[in-house]
Amino acid sequence: MEKPIKKSGLTGRWWIRAFHIFFVCAWIGGSICLILMQIGLKATDGRELDGIDASMQYVDEYVIIPAAFDR
Fold first, then answer.
1. What is the pLDDT of residue 29?
2. Are 30 and 68 in contact (CB under 8 A)?
3. CA distance 27 to 70
4. Whole-angstrom Cα distance, residue 42 to residue 38?
5. FRET label pair with 19: which of 4, 10, 68, 71, CA 20 to 30 Å apart?
6. CA distance 26 to 18
7. pLDDT at 16 (0 to 100)
8. In terms of Cα–Cα distance, which of 26, 18, 5 is closest to 69?
9. What is the CA radius of gyration of the chain?
């Protein structure tokens, strides 16, 4: 038999909402950063293109993906 889920109090609900808002802001900020990088950065050779790609991959792996799994 499963235990019933304990309801969170007002403080718990506030913390959950605060974490959710923080992760939403991080996800949207990372997405805007990627869009601005795609629009504003233009590569003239392969090394610059590799650097831009590495920067975009860093933002994706360390900002957007962790912010998407806030549960």
1. 94
2. no
3. 10
4. 8
5. 4
6. 12
7. 87
8. 26
9. 19
